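Worked example 3 (structure in, sequence out).
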């Protein structure tokens, strides 16, 4: 298979010629021995019988171990004690290149990652590469289905790499990156190159052949990701077919990013999912929001309208100076918060945020403004929501709701950002907002069929917003990514061995592949599934629905078939 994208495998950059430690190993300083102990050991080694035994032992080691001279080499397997390595312990790859596509730039940074070799059966077995995405990886491994089920089944190692510019460890440290630096460095291509470089070093550490598929020590790479990381997982098979062997891509919105998905499909699915969880929800939300918009329009001032919905006046964003702006952004915040609940809406339960949100709007004993206030109160104490919006953790101590928590960091922030599915707050929200202002454009609007007020998304509005945020030098280029990576027609590019999985209650499924593309680009759909429910943070459990249970078996079987094919093709 030829690589036509121009993003071939990147050579691992290392500078450890005089360093006995492998670049992936944590550096640990051991306390020095006391003087008295040193003297006792020195005296012991002066004894003739000890010298004889030591010499004989060294001779035996050299005879039985042809690789004796490499014992400190990166090619040696991990010591057996590392089988008990804590997979949630953060590690750092110190030699990550800042810019993979500028040969003159040799600067490096420390890329956070996690690894699990608890089930690794040695060279010749696969490596699962879990792809990091638009958020910090502060809690270790993401997917128990991979680490606790697929890894032992296949005798595999697992590595998980944090996406550049998300989390506290970034290529540009000590100061904010400039817009010009972000344009060059914050791209899907740079992030994928990070992960390839780190995975190559990990292969080297495990004693695996990096490229030679005919070698008995070849360790196939299987990329795994959900949502944007699911998209990246699929792109590895397009951009790095010589290094990545299989892609498992859950809730991966390729059609959204190649601009072919209907812009209204996202919130249309949110609407259907809400109705699926609680009959009558969609009409209740639709009628309530229509009333709320009318009440806001009739208010005598922004201050009055804000107070009516129990929003905090003291933290109201300064740019909200008109009733229309307040109304539009309130509707947007309600919509993407509902979408967040939909992403978490699995397995079926009355404890789900989506179900509770529906009940708020279906409560006939409260008025429309009280329903809005009660809806936002649901977010308090929601761990998933607090991770997306760091300011939410302080909300429980306030009597009103601080709508400014939805603002990302940076200049001229807005609640309605470049991503109408919600950018998130804080620095991660800022970075995601930037990505969607450059090449990772996702057209998401509101149709008359959705339960939210109709609102059209346009490239012109996106450009206006992005230039407000980042300056006139930023103009979104919606077709640059698909042109560069060439994923508009996966069959035409010769791509193979990609597994797409979708929860049909998940709005991102509207931008993914729901049918098989070819004999080796497959799609599995789960009627009850939400956002990458097969790659949840819980893993397979007794609470799973039958379609997800069957899905785990199907996924394992498909991966096993493809791994067997790779072995057969290599002659092993």
């Amino acid at each position: 298979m030829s690589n036509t994208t121009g993003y071939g495998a990147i050579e691992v950059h290392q500078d450890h010629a005089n360093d006995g430690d492998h670049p992936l190993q944590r550096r640990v300083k051991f306390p020095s021995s006391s003087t008295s102990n040193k003297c006792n050991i020195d005296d012991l080694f002066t004894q003739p019988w000890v010298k004889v035994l030591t010499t004989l032992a060294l001779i035996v080691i050299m005879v039985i171990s042809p690789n004796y001279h490499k014992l400190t080499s990166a090619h040696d397997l991990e010591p057996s004690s590392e089988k008990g390595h804590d997979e949630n312990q953060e590690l750092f790859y110190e030699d990550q290149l800042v810019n993979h596509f500028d040969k003159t730039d040799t600067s490096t940074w420390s890329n956070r990652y996690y690894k699990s070799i608890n089930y690794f059966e040695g060279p010749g077995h696969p490596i699962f590469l879990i792809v990091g995405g638009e958020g910090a990886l502060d809690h270790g491994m993401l997917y128990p289905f991979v680490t606790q089920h697929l890894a032992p089944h296949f005798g595999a190692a697992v590595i998980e790499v944090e996406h550049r510019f998300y989390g506290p460890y970034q290529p540009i440290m000590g100061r904010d990156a400039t817009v010009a630096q972000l344009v060059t460095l914050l791209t899907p291509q740079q992030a994928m190159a990070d992960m390839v470089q780190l995975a190559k070093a990990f292969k080297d550490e495990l004693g695996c052949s990096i490229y030679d598929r005919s070698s008995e020590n070849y360790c196939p790479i299987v990329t795994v990701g959900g949502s944007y990381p699911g998209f990246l997982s699929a792109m590895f098979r397009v951009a790095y077919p010589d290094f990545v062997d299989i892609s498992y891509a859950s809730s991966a919105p390729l059609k959204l990013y190649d601009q072919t998905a209907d812009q209204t499909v996202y919130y249309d699915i949110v609407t259907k999912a809400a109705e699926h969880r609680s009959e009558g929800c969609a009409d209740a939300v639709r009628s309530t929001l229509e009333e709320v918009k009318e009440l806001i329009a009739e208010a005598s001032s922004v201050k009055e309208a804000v107070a009516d919905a129990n929003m905090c006046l003291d933290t109201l964003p300064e740019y909200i100076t008109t009733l229309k702006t307040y109304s539009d952004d309130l509707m947007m915040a309600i919509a993407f918060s509902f979408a967040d609940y939909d992403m978490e809406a699995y397995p079926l339960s009355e404890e789900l945020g989506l179900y509770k949100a529906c009940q708020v709007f279906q409560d006939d004993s409260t008025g429309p403004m009280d329903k809005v206030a009660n809806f936002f109160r649901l977010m308090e104490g929601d761990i998933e929501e607090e991770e997306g919006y760091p300011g939410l953790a302080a909300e429980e101590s306030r009597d009103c709701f601080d709508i400014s928590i939805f603002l990302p960091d940076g200049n001229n922030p807005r609640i309605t950002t470049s991503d109408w599915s919600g950018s998130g707050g804080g620095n991660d929200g800022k970075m995601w907002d930037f990505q969607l202002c450059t090449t990772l454009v996702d057209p998401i609007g509101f149709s008359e069929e959705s339960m939210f007020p109709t609102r059209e998304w346009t490239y012109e509005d996106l450009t206006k917003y992005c230039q407000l945020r980042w300056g006139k030098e930023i103009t979104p280029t919606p077709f640059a990514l698909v042109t560069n990576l060439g994923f508009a027609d996966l069959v035409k590019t010769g791509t193979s061995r990609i597994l797409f999985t979708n929860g049909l209650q998940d709005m991102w499924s509207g931008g993914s592949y729901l049918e098989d593309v070819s004999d080796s680009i497959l799609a599995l759909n789960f009627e009850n599934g939400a956002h990458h429910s097969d790659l949840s943070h819980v893993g397979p459990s007794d609470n799973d629905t039958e379609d997800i249970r069957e899905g785990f078996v199907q996924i394992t079987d498909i991966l096993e078939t493809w791994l067997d094919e790779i072995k057969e093709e290599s002659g092993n």
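Notes: The longest strand covers residues 108-116. Residues 546-570 form the longest helix (25 residues).
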